[in-house]
Amino acid sequence: MSELYIPAGTGAADGYELEVTPKSAGWEHSSLRILNLPAGGERVVETGTEEMFVVPLSGSATVSLGGETHTLEGRATVFEGPTDVSYLPIRSTVTIASEAGGRFALCGAQCEQELPFRYGPKAEVPVELRGAGQASRQVRNFGTVGSFDAGSIIACEVITPGGNWSSYPAHKHDEAGPHESQLEEIYYFEIAPGPAGQPGLGFHRTSSSPGHEIDIMVEVHDRDTVLIPWGWHGPCAAAPGHDMYYLNVMAGPGEERAWLITDHPDQAWIRDTWADQAIDSRLGGQ
Question: Among its keywords, does the record have Isomerase (predicted)?
Answer without folding.
Answer: yes
